[in-house]
Design the sequence.
């Protein structure tokens, strides 16, 4: 079975632009979570979606938004990009909403210039 | 609030020698604790998980971790390092639901 897939793998954007990152969970998984990993740091929680509803949100500005589709895939949107948004964005899926093992994708490397 | 502190940012060992990666946690209730590994340009892989069933947790690839409540520690060990173990290791505590709180990471180097 395919694991968690994310697209694109790499992306370069300019300050002020908007970006959309995509994630397909493992088949049968209904929960998708997003994490931001700045170089040299551990990942930080951005969002969790379960059954197409937002179930948790980390300490990120409103420029960050996400949604989950009926097929459980998800998109992360970031508006008005800042240089500090440069990071590896990781998507994780799990079968349940709480304490289910998370399976991570390989991430999208976003560079903002 | 939950948090984890990884006590070493870098650890260097020789192949075949023991590995010890240290982690202290802070939690207002009985925590769920994890160790994840990240190889270069790869996503995160779960090594092991503690959920109060047993204090000594065995994971994949020969790794294990011991939960010590009195010391608020959850150190990761392996008896004999292999070159393929070179990677970044993260100690993680559950913040509820599927929210994970990661430590800053420990980079493990393995020398021949």
Sequence:
């Amino acid at each position: 079975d395919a694991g968690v897939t994310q697209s694109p793998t790499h992306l370069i954007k300019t300050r002020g632009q908007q970006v959309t990152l995509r994630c397909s969970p493992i088949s049968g998984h209904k929960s998708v979570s997003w994490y931001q990993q700045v170089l040299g740091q551990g990942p930080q929680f951005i969002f969790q979606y379960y059954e197409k509803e937002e179930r948790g949100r980390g300490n990120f500005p409103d420029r960050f938004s996400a949604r989950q589709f009926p097929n459980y895939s998800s998109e992360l949107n970031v508006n008005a990009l800042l240089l500090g948004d440069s990071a590896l964005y990781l998507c994780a899926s799990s079968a349940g909403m709480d304490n289910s093992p998370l399976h991570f994708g390989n991430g999208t490397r976003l560079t903002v210039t | 609030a939950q948090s984890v502190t990884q006590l070493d940012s870098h650890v260097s060992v020789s192949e075949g020698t023991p590995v010890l990666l240290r982690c202290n946690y802070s939690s207002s209730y009985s925590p769920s604790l994890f160790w994840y590994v990240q190889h270069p340009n790869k996503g995160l892989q779960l090594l092991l998980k503690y959920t109060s069933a047993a204090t000594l947790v065995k994971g994949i690839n020969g790794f294990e971790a011991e939960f010590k409540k009195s010391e608020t520690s959850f150190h990761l060990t392996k008896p004999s390092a292999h070159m393929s173990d070179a990677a970044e290791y993260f100690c993680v505590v559950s913040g509820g639901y599927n929210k994970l709180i990661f430590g800053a990471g420990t980079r493990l180097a393995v020398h021949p």
